[in-house]
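Per reviewer request, we include the raw input and output of the structure prediction for the construct analysed in the revised manuscript.
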Amino acid sequence: MQKKTTRAANTGSHQINAHSIKKQLNPLDLYRHELPTAKLKKHGWNDGGLCPFHADNHAGSFHVNVVTGAYKCFACGAAGSDVIAFTMALYGLKFVEALEQLANDWGLV
């Protein structure tokens, strides 16, 4: 029987893992904060405005899924499956660093 490993971040006296981040953090809230000019609706894939990963000047190529947290830029190819991947790419963080940042920024424990 294989032991299941989980990568987690320590935030003070608490430990938080990817599952708890995704359970507690609504992708719509994160994307409204990180992409303040995007007109996001409350379901499915949305136009995310200008892509934060390249010098974008054509709105409409960057999309975010406000249910799953996935994102995709059809111009530069940046893509990820959730808010953790977005945070890693946006801030150049490693996985555990992104967990810590999200936990601290959003008060998740």
